[in-house]
Design a protein that fits this description.
With 130 residues, the chain is mostly helical. It starts with a helix and ends with a helix. The protein is rod-shaped and about 85 Å long. It contains two helices and two strands.
Amino acid sequence: MAEEQKQLQSLSDEFQKLQAELQITVEARQKLESQQQENKGVQKVEFARLADDAKIYKLVGPVLLKQDRSEAVLAVDGRLEFIEKEIKRIEQQIGALQETSELKKMEVYRLQTEMQQQQQAAGAPAAAVA
């Protein structure tokens, strides 16, 4: 029984670690989605408002560098492409973590059920004798 208790504790700890990792991964996806929306806003709204001869500056560290419009558009498009790939990668990671977590949860539930049945079986003969 003590061995089963240790195994149950170990499985529970693993499940909690998976849940924490899943939470971190979901937060990373949310951050990427926020960045994606911000870049889409720049792509669709900000660039549309700019005059063709408008000056565009890029912040590099503490310095503002002048940038051509075409460079800025390519940079935003590149960022969006990267972000979309990262979102897909993280969604696959989330799916894998959810699947692993669900399997671990079922394993914990199975072990708990076995332990309860053993306790009931051990308690039944003692009650019959008394």
